[in-house]
Specification:
Layout: H1 3-28, H2 33-42, H3 59-85, H4 92-113, H5 121-134, H6 141-146, H7 149-171, H8 178-223
Length: 233
């Protein structure tokens, strides 16, 4: 098998693995919003009683918590990558399954930090739009408006897997070298969560700021006194 054929075969396998892993994450890997709210209040000392409370905090406070969550995901992914990396390329597929779960949980936590829950179909769809953004895939809002979430999410997952598989095959070639595969696996997983986490953070941050601006403008409009035209006698 030539180098190009080998890379094409590997990319196909990686893409299928990512589709399965992300689909599993969609149905089973869920951050519990209530437990995470408690964690935000205790571990991160955010003075909120519910997720609506994040809109009363300084944006810098949310950014600091988001960065800490990304760093935590990076460290966990690096440890996992170092362990699976010992097996070289043969362990890339189970590694991708766990890495996908770590990444999606990180994205879910970032969503909650900026005040976006995922309990309704629209919110779930928005979460996957953020995941696509983190993967560098632009999902048109028109696509969401035309489809129900159960059809929309699988299509987004396929788009993410297609894009990410090329990235994985290109950057993870170093795992072919046994002596360096463990360190390489740790570094690549660390980089993967960092890159996806930062892009997801940017997505949620922009939406959060937009909603703040809209709420502020609505409040200003509500305070404008109603001026009736002068009546003639």
């Amino acid at each position: 098998m030539s180098g190009d054929e080998s890379k094409s075969w590997l990319r196909g396998r990686v893409e299928k693995t990512l589709v399965k892993a992300l689909t599993r994450a969609y149905s089973t890997v869920q951050v519990n919003p209530e437990k995470f709210l408690l964690q935000l209040r205790t571990a991160y000392r955010m003075p909120i009683s519910g997720y609506h409370g994040v809109y009363s905090l300084e944006i810098g406070e949310l950014d600091a918590v988001a960065d800490e969550i990304i760093r935590s995901g990076m460290k966990l992914a690096a440890l996992e990558g170092a362990g699976f990396g010992l097996g070289g390329l043969i362990t890339i597929f189970p590694d991708l399954g766990i890495l996908s779960a770590i990444t999606m949980r990180t994205i879910q936590k970032l969503s909650l930090v900026y005040g976006f829950q995922f309990s309704t179909d629209d919110e779930i769809a928005e979460l996957w739009i953020a995941a696509a953004s983190a993967a560098g895939v632009d999902i048109s809002r028109e696509l969401l408006e035309k489809e129900v979430v159960n059809k929309f999410v699988p299509r987004v997952i396929q788009r993410i897997a297609t894009r990410a598989s090329a990235e994985v095959v290109e950057k993870w070639a170093g795992r072919l070298i046994p002596l360096t595969s463990s360190a390489m696996g740790a570094a690549l997983n660390y980089w993967f969560v960092r890159a996806w986490g930062q892009r997801a953070k940017s997505h949620f941050r922009q939406r959060h700021i937009q909603l703040r601006r809209q709420a502020h403008e609505a409040a200003l409009v509500a305070q404008v006194p109603l001026i009736l035209p002068a009546q003639t006698i």
